[in-house]
Amino acid sequence: MAENTLILVKPNETPGVIDFYNQSLSLRDYANARVIATNEDLKPATDDLVIIAKIKKGMEERKKEYLNPFQSHIKETNEAYKILMLPIEEADKITRDKILAFGTEQERRRREIEAIEAEKLALARREAELKGGEITIDLTPIEKPEAVPNRIRTEMGISGQRDNWKWEVVDFSQVPDSYKMINNGILTPVVKASKGRITIPGIRIYNEPIIAVST
Fold this sequence. Notes:
The chain is mainly α. It contains 4 helices and 2 strands. Helices cover 55% and strands 3% of the residues. The chain has a two-stranded antiparallel ribbon with strand order 1-2. β1 and β2 form a beta hairpin. α1 (15-33) crosses α2.
């Protein structure tokens, strides 16, 4: 059977990447030594930024060339296992749900019986007060379902029920500020698009210029 082989390559031993790296070392030295004192000094700095941008692009392209086959293989593997794991995941969930449902129903029945017995006892006491101590109500205990054990131990292993606390928001306005989080995915595009024209209570909007380079 034919198999696709993914070749492992060390980036720090790849000639093209090493060339980029060596150029980067020189450019870093130039950057450290650079003095920008006049407008004319901006021209060689811009030329270096263009070279830097090209090297960064080249390095990213090399990285993608190397990683894409692996990432594609990982994606295909994950997709395949979603299907392959589906039956066992379903079997696991169905069995767990049935065990939990059984325990919930047994507990519900126990509470119902206890409520009935409490009502019968209260009624018997009222009858006794009315009839001078005579009680005709049947106070025979009702048979309760057997308590579900917290752990089930077999020769193959152990299963048991444990607490699993969760949460859901029912009124966001009442949630303490310390538990709230700013939605960067919504706020950032709004701020960028507004170009400083928008005001949001509690948010400082400011401009922090960056250098854009075109190659």
